[in-house]
Design goal:
Blueprint (H helix, E strand, L loop, with lengths): L4 E6 L16 E7 L4 H11 L7 E7 L4 E7 L2 H4 L3 H6 L4 E7 L14 E5 L2 E11 L2 H10 L10 H10 L5 H9 L4 E9 L3 E5 L8 E5 L2 E5 L3 H4 L4 E5 L5 E5 L2 E5 L9 E2 L1 H6 L5 E2 L2 E2 H16 L5 E4 L5 H11 L7 E3 L12 H5 L6 E3 L1 H4 L3 E6 L6 H12 L4 E6 L27 H8 L3 E4 L2 H7 L12 E2 L1 H4 L7 H4 L15
């Protein structure tokens, strides 16, 4: 096999200091088979999935003879906007990835898709999710002579595929995935085609689409919309889809289990214009807001969303409560993770770098603020203070998720549990901490009702809701042993 062409870019990236009080998007994956402009389609698809990861992006293509790759730190547009880059990514098939680190440090060696030459040829692989026994498996693999080049848990899958005794690429992949624990939606590119697979519980999303004779895999349906592809269906929990010259072949190689899709995809992570598991994310968020109003409505003059993620829930809240909805907070969309590191004086201005109160709509009003979550509480404190300074008579905070009291280990980068405000404060204490006149969260049963269920069945919950309940549906082997995969790395690398 010829060596893959690999180009790397190193755009400077600075995480914005005011972004540390939100649950992090996980990652986004995209794949296309059977299109002459596969790289361009992958770049467009990743643009639509940019909300799922802003630290790094990568694309690998295959032209029938050789693999081509480009990976870089930063946004998709910073890495794939030039004709020269896209022109070098030749081939009729491609996979791409946008990353927010959940396992492994922020460094070029962890940027996906990962690529390796195997006995059967080349294979590129990208992963949305997180493995909960990667440290355990990595120790075994290193003991058998595997040489790791990254600190990403995804590379564990690569080495398990390499050491498998099975025959085909699909068989090796299944053999590898039967050894891992955790949440994953994978897209892989081999010389034979593109493969997509979801974990048996279906924690992370993956959809199948079609564009003419080409087939598409993506984390969300919004990535199909941007390229004009037709949504075909969700890839099912535990399903492996192989796409090649013979078409699409589906198999169910894992034990069937009751699905536990991540409910936070509906609350925050997925784009509002996506349809997930047959449910409009936008409509789901409005229903959550309406249920929140039924559970914790109170006399007020106006409903204001904390933009942008709080907007659909605030609309639902306003419609259910009969209160007027107004954009009382205006977001500056040009401040993001690539913003220059501010001085201490500028840092003190806090949330005003990203949000500003619309005084004319707030002054003298009793305000209901609607947001999707409270993590550490620092941003909520600044938002409440800002609204008060704009002249609000009262500020009542309403949250469209239950209290986030537990860390996620399935692909969402959350702080350690002791840093989660809800892990050590009750709701009244949290209200005092953020300075609100009142604070209420949607109940876990209310969340389930908004999603079309009677409530949460403790014996058989429909969703993964561990960040609210502590009910982890997949074993936490590494965490229980006090280990993380990055402990194996001896190399310090600066992104």
């Amino acid at each position: 096999m010829p060596e893959p062409f690999l180009e790397q870019s190193s755009a400077m990236l600075t995480t914005h200091p005011l972004d540390d009080d939100h649950l992090r998007e996980e990652c986004g994956v995209f794949g296309v088979y059977g299109h002459v402009e596969s790289a361009a389609l992958a770049a467009l698809g990743l643009h639509a999935l940019q909300h799922r990861g802003q630290e790094a992006a990568g694309i690998v293509t295959y032209d029938g003879e050789q693999f081509h790759a480009h990976r870089g730190m930063g946004h998709v547009g910073e890495n794939f906007s030039s004709k020269e880059v896209i022109g070098r990514l030749k081939g009729h098939s491609a996979i791409g990835h946008v990353r927010y680190a959940t396992t492994g440090e922020v460094a070029m060696r962890n940027v996906q898709p990962l690529f390796a030459d195997f006995e059967f040829g080349g294979l590129a692989i990208c992963h949305n999710g997180n493995l909960t026994n990667s440290y355990h498996l990595r120790r075994k693999l290193v003991g058998r002579g595997s040489l790791f080049q990254s600190t990403s848990d995804t590379e564990v899958i690569v080495h398990l595929i390499a050491t498998s005794r099975k025959g085909s690429v699909e068989e090796r992949m299944v053999d590898a995935l039967r050894q891992v624990e955790g949440a994953y939606s994978l897209v892989a590119l081999s010389q034979d085609g593109v493969i997509g697979v979801r974990d048996p519980l279906g924690v992370r999303p993956l959809v199948l689409g079609r564009l003419g004779d080409a087939w598409i895999l993506a984390s969300e349906s919004c990535a199909l919309d941007i390229i004009g592809a037709e949504f075909v269906r969700d890839v099912e929990a535990g399903e492996l889809v192989t796409i090649n010259a013979l078409g699409v072949r589906s198999s169910r190689p894992f034990e069937r289990m009751k699905q536990r899709f991540c409910v936070f995809e509906y609350i925050y992570f997925a784009r509002p214009d996506s349809v997930v598991d047959g449910i409009s994310v936008y409509e789901a968020r409005k229903r959550i807001g309406a249920e929140l109003a039924r559970e914790s409505g109170m006399p007020a003059d106006i409903v204001i969303p904390v933009p942008d993620s709080g907007v659909p829930a605030a609309l639902g809240y306003a419609q259910e409560s009969g209160l007027p909805f107004e954009l009382g907070i205006i977001r500056n969309h040009y401040v993001g993770r690539t913003f220059i590191e501010p001085t201490d004086q500028i840092r003190h201005l806090g949330v005003k770098l990203k949000h500003n109160a619309n005084r004319v709509k707030i002054e003298g009003k009793r305000v209901v603020l609607v947001d999707d979550s409270i993590v550490r509480g620092t941003t909520s404190t600044k938002i409440v203070e800002m609204v008060r300074q704009a002249g609000a008579r009262e500020v009542h905070m309403r949250i469209s998720s239950p209290p986030t009291s537990h860390s996620c280990f399935y692909g969402i980068a959350t702080p350690e549990r002791e840093k989660l405000l809800a892990s050590h404060m009750d709701v009244e204490e949290m209200a005092r901490f953020i300075g609100a006149d009142s604070l209420a969260f949607i109940s876990i049963d209310g969340l389930y009702r908004a999603m079309g269920h009677m409530g949460r069945d403790p014996a058989a919950p429909r969703f993964c809701d561990a960040c609210f309940t502590g009910d982890y549906p997949i074993a936490l082997t590494d965490h229980d042993a006090g280990k993380v995969s990055t402990q194996l790395s001896l190399l310090a690398e600066t992104a």
